[in-house]
């Protein structure tokens, strides 16, 4: 897989679809949606910074995920109203949970390792 923005965008859209489906199918554990959210954030950061080091992408992605999660502790009227909308609920979440932090961390680690393995395999085949 090369570091094409188009490839990453296709993966990004696929992750969004899987994340939405994970919330609609009752037997899928809720942490899967948070895991996929972290993967989506990693891919989104990668789209904007396609040639940056994967460690930097992982670090920035974790900062974004953790920042959004800790922002859920902020309960001003305007942000509570924003969270009541569909987009606000999907982007900002509903309430702070330590389990979400764990799911985000796991998601970032998995997508980071997957990208490293995939790119290493691609680089070996093209050499």
TrEMBL record:
Coiled coil regions, renumbered to chain: none
Pfam families reported in the protein's UniProt record: DUF2809
Protein name: DUF2809 domain-containing protein
Alphabetic keyword roster: Membrane, Transmembrane, Transmembrane helix
Transmembrane segments annotated in the record for this chain: 6-21, 28-49, 55-74, 95-114
InterPro entries assigned: DUF2809
């Amino acid at each position: 897989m090369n570091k094409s923005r188009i490839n990453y965008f296709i993966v990004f859209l696929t992750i969004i679809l899987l994340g939405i489906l994970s919330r609609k199918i009752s037997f899928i554990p809720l942490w899967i949606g948070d895991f996929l959210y972290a993967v989506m954030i990693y891919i989104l950061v990668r789209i904007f910074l396609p040639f940056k080091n994967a460690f930097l992408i992982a670090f920035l992605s974790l900062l974004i995920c953790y920042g959004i999660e800790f922002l859920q502790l902020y309960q001003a009227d305007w942000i509570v109203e924003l969270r009541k909308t569909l987009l606000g609920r999907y982007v900002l979440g509903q309430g702070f949970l330590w389990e979400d932090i764990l799911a985000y961390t796991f998601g970032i680690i998995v997508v980071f390792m997957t990208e490293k393995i995939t790119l290493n395999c691609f680089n070996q085949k093209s050499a």
